[in-house]
Design a protein that fits this description.
The chain is of the alpha/beta class and 475 residues long. The protein is built from 13 helices and 21 strands. The chain folds into four domains: 167 residues, Rossmann fold, CATH 3.40.50; 113 residues, Transcription Regulator spoIIAA, CATH 3.30.750.210; 119 residues, Transcription Regulator spoIIAA (2-Layer Sandwich), CATH 3.30.750.200; 57 residues, OB fold (Dihydrolipoamide Acetyltransferase, E2P) (Beta Barrel). Helix content is 37%, strand content 22%. The strands form six sheets. The chain has a six-stranded parallel β-sheet with strand order 3-2-4-5-6-7, with helices on both faces. The protein has a five-stranded mixed β-barrel with strand order 17-18-19-21-20. It has a three-stranded parallel β-sheet with strand order 9-12-13, with helices on both faces. Helix 4 links the parallel strand 5 and strand 6. Helix 1 packs across helix 5, helix 8 packs parallel to helix 9 and helix 12 packs parallel to helix 13. It binds iron/sulfur cluster.
């Protein structure tokens, strides 16, 4: 599929600000009529890129005069930002959208919009058109920057709107953003993917790889660092390809070096890396820069070379192992994590054993494991030899058992040691505790108070289990 990369012009972005002003007049009128400010509820499914996109949706909505609400029942505008990576996430988004029908019945002026990867697929767009008549507007991932225009039009034309652009992959700057955190920021450095792994819909729904200009990224981080932000996570489907489309020699390692030269006390994370593009230069950069966390998320997906070829991953298990060995040699105490798929079409029990073998050889800190889920129109979904659910579940359970034991052993090595963590907030599982993460993204529970949130602290680890560590703050 040939797609153009389109840089959205400053004039086009200014036009969106004009739509935001028009919408502001409209929400002011709604405020006067209702006696309270209209509210927006943004619901996000999927990956960090979607969370980052939702922060822009919220930012534009706030600029248009809405206030944020966590409860859809109070909302005057609901935007569902969907994911297409697994069927489960799609069905969940559709089910929740179904529940909004009753809200619309109670409040005729409620606007409901759906965006993101799921609705960028033709068959899902048709589903929404035909089966969810109370959804007012839809826009694909390439149309995010036109959200103010689409919402304005939805009010003016009083008809359902469906906006897609499958011919181009857009890149834009300068839209308002409402960050969820006051100390951690998602920074998209590039969008899209050119890799076409045979199981993945991302290249179809997010378009071709395109990189933001370094100056735009650096300016944004500089500004946030001045505000005291403590962690920047650089996002891209394949960050190691950053810069290839810029027509210069500047690459992802150069970008990391320039970010580290910015004043401030902060950590830099990034995801996701593709093993075929992760270079020794990148590993050397991580090793030498103190601000870059000593953590590499490097998805290997399968430990068997025949399965890797079927997945179209373009590396083999030997090359992968050499790369992580280089990382272990160069980066002291590096934390390694990975994504793994079990039950890919035709995968045999013996081939699955190769995946377990890779876990044991590398000793990952943790892995995100997924049961293979066929995605419509991808090559893997059409392959013969789909694995029965029961076999997939058994392999999944075995993989968890092997990895959990490795994680527990690695965590227990921390007991008695003092580590630096960034405190994120109250624990979700224990009301009396606060939680943070170390540079390897491991969860640490501590006793503390609100004054620690958003701060780096040193913690002596007292106890560790598979999923978290427990420690005492060292003053
Ligand atoms: S690298 Fe492969 S798995 Fe990752 S987004 Fe691209 S196509 Fe999907």
């Amino acid at each position: 599929m040939e797609e153009k990369i389109v840089n959205i012009s400053q004039e086009d972005i200014e036009r969106q600000y004009e739509y935001m002003s028009l919408m502001k007049e409209r929400t002011n009128a709604i405020s006067l009529e209702k006696g309270c400010t209209p509210k927006v509820h943004v619901l996000t499914f999927g990956c960090q890129q979607n969370e980052a996109d939702s922060e822009y949706i919220a930012g534009m909505a706030l600029e248009m005069g809405y206030e944020k609400t966590d409860t859809p029942e109070n909302a005057d505008l609901i935007v569902v930002n969907t994911c297409a990576v697994r069927e489960h996430a799609e069905l969940k988004a559709l089910s929740i959208t179904g529940q909004f029908k009753h809200l619309k019945a109670k409040n005729r002026s409620l606007k409901i919009g759906i965006c993101g990867c799921m609705v960028t697929q033709e068959h899902r767009k048709d589903d929404i058109k035909n089966k969810y008549p109370y959804v007012d507007f839809l826009f694909g991932t390439n149309m995010l920057w036109r959200f103010p225009e689409i919402l304005n039009e939805s009010f003016e034309r009083k008809k359902r709107l469906f906006y897609f652009d499958h011919e181009s992959s857009n890149i834009w700057e300068g839209l308002p953003v409402k960050r969820e955190s006051g100390f951690k920021a998602w920074i998209s450095v590039m969008y899209g993917c050119n890799n076409f792994c045979s199981y993945c819909v991302v290249p179809y729904v997010r378009g071709r790889e395109r990189s933001r200009q370094p100056k735009d990224i650096l300016r944004q981080i500089e500004c946030l660092a001045k505000q005291g932000y403590k962690e920047f996570t650089l996002l891209g489907q394949n960050v190691n390809s950053y810069g290839k489309d810029l027509g210069t020699e500047y690459d992802f390692s150069d970008l990391l070096n320039d970010i580290c030269a910015i004043d401030g006390d902060f950590w830099v994370r990034f995801m996701t890396s593709h093993p075929k593009d992760a270079s020794k230069k990148l590993i050397d950069t991580i090793a030498k820069q103190d601000k870059i966390v000593k953590h590499l998320h490097l998805p290997f997906q399968a430990g068997n070379d025949r399965v890797l070829r079927l997945m179209n991953r373009k590396y083999d298990s030997k090359g992968y192992f050499e790369l992580v060995s280089y990382a272990k040699e160069k980066i002291e105490n590096v934390g390694l994590t990975s994504d793994v798929i079990v039950g890919f079409p035709t995968e045999t029990d013996e081939e699955f054993e190769d995946t377990l073998e890779m876990l044991r050889k590398v000793e990952f800190d943790s892995v995100y494991s997924f049961i293979y889920s066929p995605r419509k129109d991808t090559p893997a979904a059409k392959m013969e030899g789909q694995i029965p659910d029961e076999t997939k579940k058994k392999r999944f359970a075995k993989l968890l058992e092997v990895q959990n034991s490795i994680t527990k052993d690695l965590n227990s090595e921390y007991v008695g040691k003092t580590i630096k963590i960034l405190v994120e907030g109250k624990s979700k599982t224990d009301d009396d505790k606060y939680t943070g993460r170390n540079d390897k993204n491991r969860l640490v529970h501590i006793d503390g108070d609100d004054s620690l949130v958003g701060q780096f602290v040193n913690v002596k680890i007292d106890k560790a289990d598979t999923f978290a560590m427990y420690g005492t703050v060292i003053k």
